[in-house]
């Protein structure tokens, strides 16, 4: 008898021994038999619910439900749904964590961020150009684009917006 069958057999006999169900799940995970894995996960969840541990039942039930859906195993899925309802376990996947805001919500390029740092220090276009080894007209174009992207009317306003948005702090880190 293969180890996975033996582990499942022992878990069935012991019924509510979560360690044996965990061993059966581990044994079936190493094989390409998703139906049997789903059954072992179901047993593991049932054992956890019998012990009053709803939290420990949630992940195995969700995985078993997903496997049953993938296999088109309607009978198994109905059993999973009934167990989830009896145990008041939510089978819905948890909400994904919120997407962090982009590092630069204004869409500034790396070069524009360089220019912004110098602009915030009060440098003129000529001084920015000399510092970055670009022409004064190129510095002016960068400044114009920065003002537009930040929605600022003046250089000081752009510096204030960048400071409030944390753009200058990120550059200094």
From TrEMBL:
Keyword Transcription regulation among record annotations: yes
Keywords: DNA-binding, Transcription, Transcription regulation
The organism's place on the tree of life at top rank: Bacteria
GO molecular function: DNA binding
All residue ranges annotated as the HTH luxR-type domain in the record: 101-166
One Pfam family in the UniProt entry: GerE
InterPro entries: Sig_transdc_resp-reg_C-effctor, Tscrpt_reg_LuxR_C, WH-like_DNA-bd_sf
Cited PROSITE patterns: HTH_LUXR_2
Gene Ontology annotations of biological process type: regulation of DNA-templated transcription
Transmembrane segment boundaries: none
Chain coiled-coil ranges: none
CDD domains: LuxR_C_like (cd06170)
Protein name: Two component transcriptional regulator, LuxR family
Organism: Amycolatopsis azurea DSM 43854
Higher taxonomy: Bacteria, Bacillati, Actinomycetota, Actinomycetes, Pseudonocardiales
């Amino acid at each position: 008898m293969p180890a996975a069958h033996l582990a499942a057999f022992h878990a069935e006999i012991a019924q509510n021994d979560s360690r044996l169900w965990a061993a059966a799940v581990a044994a079936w995970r190493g094989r390409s038999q998703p139906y049997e894995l789903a059954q072992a996960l179901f047993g593991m969840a049932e054992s956890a619910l019998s012990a009053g541990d709803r939290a420990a039942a949630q992940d195995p039930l969700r995985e078993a439900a997903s496997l049953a859906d993938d296999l088109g195993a309607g009978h198994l899925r109905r059993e999973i749904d009934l167990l989830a309802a009896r145990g008041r376990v939510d089978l819905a996947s948890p909400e994904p964590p919120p997407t962090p805001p982009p590092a630069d919500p204004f869409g500034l390029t790396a070069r524009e961020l360089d220019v912004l740092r110098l602009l915030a220090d009060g440098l003129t276009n000529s001084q920015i150009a000399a510092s970055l080894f670009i022409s004064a007209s190129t510095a002016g174009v960068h400044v114009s684009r920065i003002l537009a992207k930040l929605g600022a009317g003046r250089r000081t306003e752009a510096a204030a917006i960048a400071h409030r948005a944390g753009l200058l702090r990120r550059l200094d880190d």
